[in-house]
Amino acid sequence: MAGKIRSKESIRCDSVVVRHIRGIAVSKRNISDEAREHHSIHAQWLEISKTIQYCANLLWREWIAWHTSRGNHIVVKKYMQEKRLWNQTPAKERKGEKPGSCSVNPWPPEFAKHVMERLITDYPSVNLRPLNLAVQKLEGDLRHKNGVKSAFPRWMQILADEIGPISFCSPLPIPLCNSRVRFFPPDKENSKSDWTMELRVDRIEREGMTAQSTCRIVTLHTKGRNRETLKKLAAGEYKRCGANLCYCDSKNEWRVQLGYQFPKAQPAARDAEKVAVLECGIHSPLVLTVNERQIPIGGKGDFIEVKRESIQREFNSRNETYRWSRDPRKSHGRERATKLLDVIRHRWERFTKDASYRLCSVVLRICDENAIGRIVFKKPSSNDQPNLRLWSAGQRGKTQAGNGWPLYFLEAALNRKSNELGMQVVSREAVAEDGLENIED
C-alpha cells in the first residue's frame, strides 16, 4: 500500500556541508597560518555548541528549582491524583465537578526573565539571538512534549517525580537567526559552483558600548537539490523556517541545517463534469474509476488480512483461556480475564481509521493529478459487504473484534482533504439528488 501524501505545508530540512571558512579549505593537513585561523574558528564554534548544551541543562535545573521552591510540585501531584481518580470512578458514582485545567503555569514570565539573566551572566560568549532561539526551542519542548505512558504532559510527570528531568550529554546545534543569515549565489559564469553564507554566532563584550559579533563567511558544498533549495530561499519562493549550525563528530565537519516550507498550494481549476467513482473492491480494498479506467487502491489488501488474523487470534485465545479455567479462577478473575478485550477492539478501530486515511490519500492524489472535480463514493450495502475485500480479508469466523469496516472513516478521510483540493465528494445516496443519474450503480 502506498504511504501518506506529505503535506506541502510541512517543514522540510536540507543539510549542507561547510567546505570553506573565509576561503580557507577545511583540511587537517593544512598547517599554514590561515589554517590555524580556521582551527581557532572550529574550536570557537565547538565551544559555543557545548555552551548551548550547558545552557539547556542549566535551564532544566533552574526550572525544577523554581517550581519546587514555590510548592508547584505539590499542586501538580494533587491535580494528577484528582484527575486520575475521576477517570477511574464509574460515571454514575462520580460526585462533584470534573477537574479542570491545572493552575500551574509551566513557563511563567518571571521565570523566563530570570533564566535569561542567568544564562547571559554565566555564558557571555554566546550571541543573544542564538541563545534566545535555543531557549524558545526548549520552552516549546517543555510545553508540548507528550508524557511517557500517560495522558499528562511530560512537565507534569517531572514535577510529580514520575520521570526524571531531560538532560543533554552531547553538543547541541547552534540556532541561526534568519535576520543574521544571508546567502550569496555564485557568479553567473560559474552558476554550478558553491554558494556562500554569512552568519554570526559569537558575542564580544565592550565596556560602556553595545556588544559586537564576528561576521563569518562560509562556503557551502552545494549539490543539485541543495542548490535548487538555496535558489528558492534566496528568491523568497520558500519560506525560511530557521537554520542550525551543527557539528558531525564522525566526519569532523560542520553542517548547516536549513529549514524551509513550501508555499501553500492553491486549489487548481477543476471541471465539475469530470467525475471519478470510488467503490469497495472484491480483490482489492478500493477501486477507483477515472477516465473509464479502473485503478485498484491498496494492492490485494494483504496488510488487512495480517492485522485481522492477528487481532482475532489474540481475542479467541483470551476467550479460550477464560472459558476452560477452573471455577475458583473463573469467579475471581472475571474482570481480569475480560479487561483487555476492549483494548483489542480499540486496536482494530485505530487500525481501520489509519488505513482509511492512507487509502484515501492515494485516491485524492490520483484525482488531483487527473483534475477531477467530483468524487462519487459508492457505499456498499450490507448484503454485498461480506464479499468485499475490506470485510473478507483474513476473516476466520465471527468474533467480537476485527469484524467489519467503518465506512464513516472513509467518508471523513475523503472530506478532510477534498475541500482544500477543490473537489466535491458525493456519497451513493446523494447521487440522484445532485443530478448524477447517468452514473450507473
How does this model look, in words?
There is one protein chain. By secondary structure, this protein is α+β, with helices and mostly antiparallel strands. It has a domain at 271-430: 2-Layer Sandwich (Nucleotidyltransferase, domain 5). It is built from twelve helices and 15 strands. The strands form three sheets. Strands 1, 2, 3, 4, 5, 8, 9 and 10 form an eight-stranded antiparallel beta sheet that branches. The chain has a five-stranded mixed beta sheet with strand order 13-12-11-14-15, covered by helices on one side. A two-stranded antiparallel sheet has the order 6-7. Strand 6 (204-206) and strand 7 form a beta hairpin. Helix 1 packs across helix 4, helix 7 runs antiparallel to helix 10 and helix 10 (341-369) packs parallel to helix 12. The longest helix is centred in the first third of the chain and has 37 residues, at 33-69. The protein is flat. It starts with 10 loop residues before the first strand and ends in a 14-residue tail after the last strand.
Summarize the structure.
By secondary structure, the chain is α+β, with helices and mostly antiparallel strands.
